[in-house]
Amino acid sequence: MPDRPSLPKRVTLKHVAEEAGVSIQTASHVLSGNLKVRLPESTRERVREAALKVGYQPNRHAQAMRSGKTNVISVWMPIDRLNLSYLHFLQHISRRALASGYELMIAGLDRNTALLPNGPSPTNWPVDGVISIDAGKAVEAYRKNPANDHVPVCVLGFELEANGDAVGWNLYESYKQLTQQMIAQGRSNIVHVTLDWVLADFPREQRRRGYTEAMEEAGLKPRFVAVSDETTTASHAAVDDFLSRFPETDGLACMTDTLAVGAGRAALERGHSIPEDLVLWGLGNYPVGQEFAVPVTTIEIPFAAVVDRAWNWLIERIASPEMAPRETVVSMHIIERASTGS
Asked: How far apart are CA 312 and CA 332, in angstroms?
């Protein structure tokens, strides 16, 4: 049998120093960014070139112990949901991190860890701060350990923690406003198309609450369609079954644009005309909704505005963790298209 190739040895500061022809201490000063030690720029450049040549990667644990900083921000988000909004948030966070000289560490959570109380705390490597996307309960669990109190956090949502901030968006008000608008146009049999686990576990979820309050204030009965997952296929099946039993339905208020497209397909296949017989809307301003046969009215999440505020606040808190917690709510934008008659 041929001999197995030996595993490459870990590249250390010693290898960098030997390649650059300097001491290990000099290599350490250069690669840690220590400007207090006076060194010729030519020496610094030679060390940096040597590090690239030998493939040196700094030990972040050691850096954190020496300087108290890692230049890494951790992003906590559920990854067991097919939710395009998370990708939009992540893109904007990535742009801000790149412009600010930070790296990102993505902590993928499941729905139970992110959203349910008393869940397990995420394991977190040494980082300078945490941005939580739809994972406020994970931050609560994380803060139960006092050893984590020193890590600044910013929640994209409404959970406010010590040494942290929260940036939300007025989904409840926007969803209620659009439901009221459709009721004012004469729609009286609007149903809310949402996920089955939201119906089971989150009676105060913002879209659900906005829809329910608008219907009840108008003297109308809220009704719900439970969808098994966040796909057009699942939405199509659930709404098709509902419309077969309740053909008088004249509005489909959907949790996302993805669910709206599946719901719209079911309505069209059953002979309903959109928006004449039945109005339809979603959330997210996703391409799938814009490109649907009847372009879908949507509520647009202000991704850039939310991330800009959250990132700025987190960087400020890293510098001054003693600041009092802050929270704000960013306005949303209703984009009316053909599916509601606009």
From this structure: 20
Contact 79, 134 (CB under 8 A): no
Predicted confidence (pLDDT) per residue in 216-257, tens digit = 999 999 999 999 999 999 999 999 999 999 999 999 999 999
Locus of tokens 């009286």: 188
Helices 24-31, 41-54: axis angle to 10 degrees equals: 90
The amino acid occupying position 163 is N
Q: Where are the alpha helices (DSSP H) in the chain?
A: 13-20, 24-31, 41-54, 60-67, 84-100, 111-115, 136-143, 171-184, 196-201, 206-217, 232-245, 257-269, 287-290, 303-319
DSSP code of 285?
A: -
Q: Answer whether 78's CB lies under 8 Å from 63's CB.
A: no
CATH topology for 13-58 is 434 Repressor (Amino-terminal Domain) (1.10.260)
Decide if pLDDT at 264 tops 80.
Answer: yes
Query: Which CATH fold topology does 171-300+335-340 show?
Result: Rossmann fold (3.40.50)
What is the location of CATH 3.40.50.2300 in the chain?
72-170+303-332, 171-300+335-340
Distance of CA 300 to CAs 147, 238, 332, Å?
38, 24, 6
CATH class held by domain 72-170+303-332: alpha beta
For residues 322 and 340, give the distance between their C-alpha atoms in angstroms, rounded to a whole number: 48
pLDDT digit string, tens, across residues 302-331: 999 999 999 999 999 999 999 999 999 999
Residues of the chain with CATH 1.10.260: 13-58
- Residue 186's contacts (CB-CB under 8 Å, 6 or more residues apart) are none
Query: Could you report how far apart the first and last alpha carbons of the chain are, in Å?
Result: 73
Spatial separation of the C-alpha atoms in residues 306 and 342, rounded to whole Å? 28
Instruction: Tell whether omega for the bond before 275 is within 30 degrees of 0, i.e. cis.
Output: yes
Q: What is the pLDDT of residues 55-73, one digit of tens each?
A: 887 665 555 545 567 889 9
Q: How far apart are CA 106 and CA 120, in angstroms?
A: 17
